[in-house]
Amino acid sequence: MSVVSIPLPAVRPAPWRHRLAKFGPTGLCAMAVLIFWVLAAVFGPTLLARSGAHGGGAVFAPISAQHWLGTDYLGRDILARVIEGARYTVGVAMAATLLASSAGTLLALLAAASGRWIDGALSRVLDTLTAIPSKMFALLIVAGFGSSVPVLIVTAAVIYVPGAYRIGRSLAVNINAMDYVTVARTRGEGTWYVMRREILPNILGPMLADLGLRFVYVVLLLASLSFLGLGVQPPMADWGSLVRENIGALADGGTSVIAPAAAIASLTIAVNLLIDNLPGRKARERGAR
């Protein structure tokens, strides 16, 4: 009597595990670093306030069991200051990046879908804004309106709207020339429908990748403004201002300068590595070649 063996169905990994595996080891490490800083920005200051981790110690104290990264020029714990600074570095940069990318993408869709006159007018205005050096423009705005958090967000967003617009427009113009967009116009669909349903879904992936790069640029811009004393003002502090406050003790209390600088480097490198390891990015690059 023969026994019929019934093959068992293969056990497939969970969808989220399958998606995470596409990032590779480097991408997963970069994602972990990015998630850590986001969680530190959201929950870190609250946890530090409850635990009383700020403490007080000697000025520029070295690394110890009590102060893992030493202390600053007022005897405050550097680790606590870096975690507090994540709220303004990550939060302000994320808000400015989302504002810049959203405005740039919307203007790009409008330029591609509306016609030659609107496209030409938007392109000329934003090209003029691109011609102004970003640091100089930021210094002028901050000098004129102060360095409050809303002003910094709007300033950084305005500076990087033209870059997002140019990337979005180059993608949207190509999509706008496709046959299915022509069909949509032929059946009577309006400009808003074409922008929202036909063009935007096809440029969303590249624009999200550009958003990550734009975030890195904004972080570096805000850090440089804070280093010059024109960014986030005391008692608030971001990583750039932490470097500026303690730069005089680089020889004796080096960790008070190196720790926030390393935080900036880890955040920007993590975002770049995550973008480089996005699923399908390498395949698209090979196809482009």
Number of structural domains = 1
Shape: elongated
The CATH class designation is Mainly Alpha
Unreliable stretches, pLDDT < 50, 5 or more residues?
none
User: What would the average pLDDT be, to the nearest integer?
Assistant: 84
Which CATH architecture? Orthogonal Bundle
Structure description:
This protein has 289 residues and is mainly α. The protein has one domain (25-281): MetI-like (MetI-like fold, Orthogonal Bundle). It is 73% helix and 0% strand. The chain is built from 11 helices and no strands. It has helices at residues 15-21, 24-51, 78-114, 116-130, 134-145, 149-176, 179-186, 191-227, 239-246, 255-276, 281-288. Helix 2 crosses helix 3, helix 3 (78-114) packs parallel to helix 6 and helix 3 (78-114) runs parallel beside helix 10 (255-276). The chain is elongated, with a radius of gyration of 24 Å. It starts with 14 loop residues before the first helix and ends with a helix. The model has no long low-confidence stretch (mean pLDDT 84). It holds the Pfam family BPD_transp_1. This is ABC transporter permease. It is a multi-pass membrane protein. InterPro entries: BP-dependent_transpt_permease, MetI-like, MetI-like_sf. Belongs to the binding-protein-dependent transport system permease family.
